[in-house]
Every structure is written in structure tokens, then in C-alpha cells.
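Lab notebook, bench 4. Still working through the backlog of constructs that have no structural model yet. Next entry is a single chain of 139 residues. Request: give me the C-alpha cells for it.
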Amino acid sequence: MNEKILIIDHEPDILRTLEAVLSKEGYQVRSASGREEAIGLFKSEPFDLVIMDIRIPGTDGLELMKEVKKLGDDMEVIVLTGSASIENAVKALRHDGAFDFLTKPLENVDQLINSVEKALQKHRLHKKRNIFQEAKAGQ
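Model written out:
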């Protein structure tokens, strides 16, 4: 597996835990603790998936999610936050294009792994579709 995941969260313990769990699953994992660091990583390397909190000091997490999705084209985003509200979930999922909305603390890490697998499956399908469409347009 060579899929790359970026984790954006201001809590060092969350970053370390998620890095360890996802690395063990075979993913390449990078992390950022804030907006500038995350945008810098995006400009230097591509990612297949972002897992992010919407509560990032100094920035609006939902705005950062929109910015990240613009940089990542068909990349998926999973929101993992302790700031769970119906309003935030609806906004993230419906309006801002998040793949999933999970709350901290996670009751079961398998819930996150399952969401990651489904988000990456969707990402792979989008990539295949784009390759097919480009090939078809080139005929």
C-alpha cells in the first residue's frame, strides 16, 4: 500500500496515536499541527486522504478543509473532532465535502480504520475514472 494520509490536529497525543495506528495498517502517514504546516506539506507532496480536526488554533477548520480539498483535487477528507455538533457535521459533510465525520474520543479505532479504507476506496475509484476519461478524450 502506498497511499498517503495527512493528519491535521493541534493535539500532539492525537497525532502520535493516529500516526502509529495508520502506519501499522501500512499507510504512509504525515502530520501537521496547524494550517501553515499543512498547506506547506500539500505544496510539497500529494496526499490521498486527510484526517483533520475542525478545531485548529488560529484558523477555521472548515475553511481549511475547503482549502485542502482545492489543493488535493479528488482527495477525501475525514473530520475527526471533539467539537461535534449537528451543525458542524451537516456543514462538513453536505456543504464542504467531507467523506465522514467522526467524534473524539473514538470509541473504537476500528471505526476510524473502516472509514479510512472506504474513503481511500472512493479515492481510487475517482482516480480510475479520471484516467479512463482522459484516455477516452485522447482518442
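Notes after review: The chain has a mean pLDDT of 87. The longest strand covers residues 76-81. Flag for follow-up if needed.
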